[in-house]
Specification:
Shape: elongated
Largest sheet: 7 strands, mixed
Radius of gyration: 40 Å
Number of helices: 20
Number of strands: 43
Structural class: alpha+beta
Distance between the termini: 91 Å
Strand order of the largest sheet: 28-32-33-39-38-37-36
Strand content: 25-35%
Helix content: 25-40%
Length: 812
């Protein structure tokens, strides 16, 4: 928000307060001022001149010789190169000795043999941003209004002796998106009174209700709509003083009607729109768009509308996007005679949604998106109507035509004096706090118990809870005046939650094991969300409404595709040996169209490719294999105390090698649940992505949170010797070693200390579809030495169980 200091002085007495001082006060009060910009960038001795005569230069086709009355008592001869100079114009004239921005000094000169006694200036030469001027004045010299006084200093005519304060507003301070809002803030900080503009309107004999009717068909999106009818307007330029203020605020003047609506928007913070009444007809209806409906906006672009977009219509066709932009079919043009003025309160979310979907951002939508003051809807339209009567020659019809769907009431907030002083560490009295509320324009009453009941004006929509009032007291009292006090109250020792502690421990463990952690985008390409769906719970991909690109258009349902992308990125940079892992979130929903937030689930995933070890002079490089990936999983389960409760089941899974993939099951004590998968990428996928053999895994972390056993247990070192036995059995090739291990652990009983597979052998001599699996078993009694007879009995029980369960035969 750009605030003209001279314009601000119309609403509040700033005598004795320089612009820089005001900026410092506002910044310390919580409204940050980025810069204080002086509009006069070095202009002096430049006045208004009247071009009496223009003749072609005798020796130059592109130069003109002008006779100019600059109020100096003599007629000046000035050579000008601008193509638009003409007799009868009022123009800025830099006299001999004048200074212009950039250190330019004007001297007497001869141009192609003709003396020049000054310079006729363009806007750019005066340090004015010519992009903010009407289009016809952006090229050549600056032509001033005909009523400009000859000899008047140009700094006064163009209001260059002004400073502009650039406000860096936080989203909650929408009240300061207006001159009156800034005036109220300045008044609170300085203790001075605010002078409101006159909104009195002289009306003609015609009644507005006879010219226009207003209805609201979408009351949940439009709360109030007010219209004024002005007839007999004459379209032309707005007065110079209004143009000066618009330019200072960064708004380009267009014509008197449009300029007045922009001026009042800046003044009140209430966006207005002017319709050509004869094109509009006699009715306004505010409704939502219909399916397939379109309209052409003021920028001559056809817009495809969606059913939740709010429209202003003439009862049938759209004539404006509510709060965003008007329609070309009711635009005010040079032929406009009668005008309907709109002032309304629209739902902020509705305007924001329409603006973002259509990519239309305007000063009006900026204010509606943050919320306008409902109490200013009618005063703003009255002010605009009065200005149109004064500067466009219009006659204002009697009355404001309104439709109201919801009346806005000032918020009433209660706060105690003890709470204020307790939060701030101050010892303010009730009278001091009451004076602060008065400076803010808040009505307040205080009871005997020190309870303030504060009525907050509707312009301050950011005040709703007691803490907001405490903040206002702190701002006005002065942050520098608040004493340093010790913090009071109970403290709570910070600690990690169980899931946080597990994730942190796993990160450290996998990093210690040589894996590198990655952080990837939660958004991915649609093809990636459909690659690994085993843990996706039948989820429907979630598409972002306005994606940055197709590669970042859907929320991921698996971490593995992101790791594959990381592997491809590294491969392209000659880094082929990778051991990566990521702990992150996936997003799941079963809804085609979201009505509630998706489920966010934690996952841990890994990727291994390339060599396990680097080649040395005496050692060849060894490529990673399935068991490296499985070993990482075993490390994870061991770290969370679940290593003995996990089972791996060979499975054919999408995008994984059909013979090198497995599901991972966890025994919860009440049955098994699927917690993940591990395997090699399918050869076709590896070929398509130009990857070497690549192994991946992914686990759901929620079951690990629930069933992890991270308690540290201790047991004494064994005092008695163990008994070791080896066992080799012949079984069908379809029998999994994991199933054999589970059966051995169950049959071996409590004295079976450990069991492991040390050999798997396949050969046609063993028999068709047979394999040999060899185990090493260790038995130990904790309180005595086992006898051979006891060990043999335990071992025989294991052999019997394998024979009964799997048809296993001892290999001899």
């Amino acid at each position: 928000m750009r605030v003209s200091y001279q314009w601000l002085k119309e609403y509040i007495d700033l005598e004795g307060i320089a612009p820089e001082q005001l900026a410092e006060m506002m910044t310390r009060g919580g409204i940050e001022i980025d810069t204080v910009e002086q509009r006069n960038q070095g202009v002096s001795n430049v006045v208004v001149g009247h071009v009496l005569e223009r003749q072609k230069h005798p020796d130059a086709d592109r130069l003109s010789v002008c006779k100019v009355d600059a109020g100096t008592g003599e007629i000046l001869q000035i050579v000008c190169g601008a193509p638009n100079v003409a007799a009868g114009q009022k123009v800025p004239v830099a006299l001999v000795g004048a200074k212009l921005p950039g250190g330019i000094a004007i001297k007497r000169a001869k141009l192609r043999g003709v003396e020049s006694q000054g310079m006729i200036c363009s806007a750019k030469e005066l340090g004015i941003n010519d992009k903010l001027l009407p289009k016809e004045l952006q090229e050549g010299i600056l032509v001033l209004p005909e009523d400009s006084t000859i000899g008047a200093p140009i700094t006064e005519v163009l209001a260059l002796d002004d400073a502009v304060l650039e406000l860096d507003l936080t989203p909650n301070r929408a009240d300061c998106l207006s001159m009156l809002g800034v005036a109220c803030e300045a008044a609170a900080l300085t203790g001075r009174e605010v002078k409101l503009p006159d909104t009195g309107v002289s009306v003609g004999p015609v009644k507005a209700v006879d010219k226009i009717a207003v209805t609201i068909s979408a009351p949940e999106h439009c709360f109030r709509y007010a219209a004024r009818y002005v007839q007999g307007v004459k379209i032309g330029p707005s007065p110079q003083w209004m143009q000066n203020r618009l330019i200072a605020a960064g708004v380009r003047p267009i014509n008197n009607i449009v300029d007045i609506t922009n001026y009042v928007m800046l003044e009140y913070g209430q966006p207005l729109h002017a319709f050509d009444a004869d094109k509009l007809g006699g009715r306004i209806d505010v409704r939502l768009a219909r399916p397939g409906e379109t309209m052409v906006t003021l920028d001559d672009q056809e817009r495809k509308l969606e059913p939740d977009m709010l429209l202003i219509t003439d009862g049938e066709r759209p004539v404006a996007l509510a709060g965003v932009m008007g329609g070309a079919n009711t635009e005010v043009t040079d032929e406009t005679v009668n005008v309907v003025l709109e002032s309304a309160e629209f739902d902020a979310a509705s305007v924001r949604r329409t603006s973002r979907r259509l990519g239309l951002r305007s000063e009006a939508s900026l204010r509606f998106e943050k919320g306008v003051d409902p109490a200013r809807v009618v005063p703003a339209v009255d002010r605009a109507a009065a200005l149109m009567a004064s500067y466009a020659g219009g006659t204002v019809a009697e009355g404001v035509v309104q439709a109201v769907a919801r009346e806005a009431e000032p918020a009433v907030v209660r706060v105690t004096l003890a709470k204020i002083n307790g939060h701030l560490g101050t010892s303010l009295s009730a009278d001091e706090v009451r004076q602060i509320f008065k400076r803010l324009g808040f009505e307040s009453e205080v009871s005997e118990g020190g309870v303030f009941t504060v009525k907050v004006p509707t312009r301050r929509g950011d005040i709703s809870i007691p803490e907001d009032l405490v903040e206002e007291v702190a701002r006005l009292y002065g942050y520098d005046n608040i004493p340093a006090t010790a913090i009071e109250g109970g403290t709570t020792a910070g600690r990690l939650t169980g899931p946080q502690a597990i994730r942190r421990a796993l990160r450290a463990k996998l990093a210690d094991a040589g894996l590198q952690e990655t952080l990837t985008y939660s958004l991915t390409h649609p093809s990636r969300t459909r690659m690994f769906t085993l843990l996706a719970e039948g989820a429907v991909p979630i598409r972002v409404a306005m994606p940055m690109s197709e590669d970042r258009s859907e929320l991921r349902t698996s971490l593995v595709p992101s790791l594959i992308d990381a592997a491809i990125y590294n491969r392209n940079r000659k880094n082929g040996d990778l051991k990566l892992f990521e702990i992150g979130s996936v997003f799941l929903t079963s809804e085609e169209k979201l009505t509630e937030l998706p489920r966010e689930r934690h996952r841990i995933a890994g990727l291994l490719t390339g060599s396990r070890t680097d080649a040395q002079w005496n050692v060849k490089a060894e490529p990673v294999d399935f068991y490296d990936a499985k070993g990482v999983l075993e490390t994870i389960f061991d770290h969370v105390g679940l290593s003995g409760r996990v089972r791996y089941e060979a499975a054919a899974l999408d995008n994984l090698h059909p013979g090198r993939a497995a599901k991972v099951w966890l025994d919860t004590g009440g049955g098994e649940i699927l917690v993940g998968y591990v395997g090699q990428l399918h050869p076709s996928l590896q070929l398509r992505e130009e990857l070497d053999d690549t192994y991946v895994f992914e686990l759901a972390l929620e079951p690990l949170y629930e069933h992890a056993d991270t308690a540290i247990t201790q047991r004494p070192l064994p005092r008695y010797p163990s008994v070791e036995r080896d066992l080799a059995v012949l079984v069908d090739r379809s029998v999994e070693a994991g199933s054999l291990l589970a059966a051995i652990r169950e049959a071996g009983g409590e004295w079976l200390e450990s069991v492991s597979v040390f050999d798997v052998y396949v050969d046609e001599r063993l028999g068709a579809d047979k394999k040999s699996v060899a185990f090493s078993l260790v038995y130990r009694h904790p309180e005595r030495t086992l006898t051979d007879e006891e060990a043999n009995g335990l071992h025989a029980a294991v052999v019997d169980r394998l024979a009964a369960a799997f048809g296993a035969e001892l290999r001899k």
